[in-house]
Design brief:
Radius of gyration: 17 Å
Helix content: 10-25%
Shape: globular
Number of strands: 8
Number of domains: 1
Structural class: alpha+beta
Distance between the termini: 21 Å
CATH topology: Deoxyribonuclease I, Chain A
CATH superfamily: Endonuclease/exonuclease/phosphatase
Strand content: 25-35%
Number of helices: 3
Largest sheet: 6 strands, mixed
CATH architecture: 4-Layer Sandwich
CATH class: Alpha Beta
Strand order of the largest sheet: 1-2-3-4-6-5
Oligomer: single chain
Length: about 190
């Protein structure tokens, strides 16, 4: 993050499991140990805070993806009630899936999250995929998402399918979003 603009208030990792505070814990049939990394940043210009959560969900277990998504959404409010949020990562699930539904939308007592790509491209189909396995051919649909709370407006969002020096830098195309904070939020004291 830009240290001249933001100050780090908190950094944390929790495991996507029944025991999220136990390092290395893995349940729910997950093929791999998976985490969510969270930072809370204070904007030096106005004193407001933003929470950023990044994750990589299990590629095998649908149960692990669903429970991991529910855990993330459940834990976000514990970082503070006055936070704007950006939640992103490789969710290994398509829009409309159970993990997606567990994270996106309004639900009483939970942080509301909006899919920035879907907000700007509501009719996007499988051509908007993000996984290609180094082939350049879209196979899994859009499994990488950038979600944001309603204090943000997505000005742009896309899947970058470019090569770098003739090669794909990852087995996923990069998802990106340009967000603008459009609603004032309470200062964190």
């Amino acid at each position: 993050f830009r240290a001249n603009r933001f100050a780090l208030k908190e950094a944390n990792v929790f495991w996507l499991s029944d025991t999220p505070d136990v390092a290395g814990s893995n349940q729910w049939g997950g093929a791999c140990i998976r985490v969510a990394a969270v930072v809370v940043l204070i904007d030096r210009t106005d004193g407001t805070s933003v929470g950023i959560c990044n994750t990589h969900m299990d590629h095998i277990s649908a149960v692990a993806r669903e429970k991991g998504a529910r855990l993330i959404r459940q834990r976000l409010p514990s970082y503070g009630s006055n936070l704007k949020w950006v939640v992103m990562g490789d969710f290994n699930a398509r829009p409309g899936s159970v993990p997606y539904q567990a994270l996106v939308g309004a639900e009483p007592g939970k942080i509301t999250l909006i899919d920035t790509y879907a907000a700007l491209h509501p009719k996007a189909g499988p051509e908007a995929g993000s996984f290609h396995g180094y082939t350049g051919k879209i196979g899994e649909g859009r499994i990488d998402w950038i979600l944001a709370s309603p204090e943000f407006t997505a000005l742009a969002a896309a899947i970058n399918q470019s090569k770098y020096r003739g090669m794909y830098p990852s087995d996923h195309f990069a998802a990106w979003a340009d967000l603008k904070c459009t609603r004032a939020h309470l200062r964190q004291d």
